[in-house]
Amino acid sequence: MAQADIQTAQLSNGKSIQVHTQLFINNQFVPGNGPMLETINPVNEQVICKIHSASEKDVDAAVEAANNAFKNVWKKEAAAQRGRLLNILADLMEREKDELATLEALDNGKSFVVARDVDVTDSIACLRYFAGWADKIHGHTIETTYDKMCYTRHEPIGCVAAITPWNYSIMMPIWKLAPALAAGNTIVLKTSEVTPLAMLKVAELIVEAGFPAGVVNIITGLGHITGSHLTGHPGVHKMAFTGSTVTGRRVMDGSAKSNLKKVQLELGGKSAQIVCADADLQNAAIQSCGGIFNNHGQSCNAGSRILVHEDVHDKFLELFIAEAKKIKVGDPFDPEVSQGPQINKAQFDKILDYIEIGKKEGAKLVHGGRRLFDKGYFIEPTVFTGCHNNMRVMREEIFGPVVAIATFKTIDEAIEIANDSDYGLAGGVYTSNIDTGIIVSNSLEAGTIWVNCYDVFDQSTPFGGYKQSGFGKELGLDSLKEYSHIKSVKIQLLSRL
Q1: Which of 133, 364, 446, 486 reaches 20 to 30 Å from 356, CA-CA?
Q2: Is pLDDT of 2 > 60?
Q3: Cut 0.90: pTM above it
């Protein structure tokens, strides 16, 4: 591996860490030909380092490396060996768990403890899950007529590309990399230019694990340069994208105009959590509070609308605010902190603007709503009540620690309010009646429904949205289908002619 450009970055706790800053193409760290980009520490608003970005020429080189690796090496690799390499990578990430979590906390601003125990830990589990599937991707024999034999093959697509967001800058890339490689594809992964550092460390581990050159390529850069060229590249045969609905439309457009590549989109959300009159209100308050304030509210599936039966609204609100007050906001390297800063100034300003919009629309601010500290992009967990579904804080994705609470009289009304949305990524219901839980779950127009819990993931459970929250599935057996072609083979038995 060529000598990488490694810089030293300072942590807010006084320590330092080494960071990769170049592109990773064909198992080499190489300089990018795009503009140098600054990555900012959201805790203190200081520059962490400058990173290289990919020009169109660099994208071409990464795609060429991935296609060459697919045709000459990876396509011929035994499926069990693919799984073995994924398991080795998981082991190496386990070894480097603290360093990966440190990079995530530095770059993203999330709690080090959360980054280590959730993001990195779940990413390792994802690699191991798909490693187990690598040699179990089978077709079927199909009965047709007595004189013919038919079978199906699940074949890799080839060079796939993934564009991933800044809010889960290890987990979202691994959600795409693991099934893509297990299914036999090679990949060009574009990280967010806002949070590239952790995946560049993973790139170093990919070489150590023994992956052939070109199987995994990790680049970063600006969306209108790097992302646009990757999306429209004729050498890419599948696009997997996680991000905003607006950008998702551009990904679809570029994919259609180039070579009609297969597209998978996991987009925005405005998920509803329904609290029924018979719910365990303490549990509902704990779970729904986590459902909106986890990851500083910067989750596409955040339960940012809470619909509460009018008979229990006041008691629920009391319990919910008590839970919100327990959230400690501050330095991600403080072990007591669960909420760090928002990702950057643009997102910080957007969230504060939405808080003002909520006030002007007549929602009642009952908790939070302020900036915290003089430096950094810290915002208090914020709670609005008295909301109606025509308010912008109820309809638009804020992507921050802001929740809008409304009331309902009947379950049918709650379902109608919840489904009155352009989005359909997730939802939740809290009830002590299993019939109610099933009826509401079956009625909500969303891809994932949690009952008496929220934001609970498992590697075997598919995740993906309805409506403008996108299409296609992450995780589980269903995600392998996103990275495969299914071929039918029909054979005439000559002895039956």
Answers
A1: 446
A2: no
A3: yes
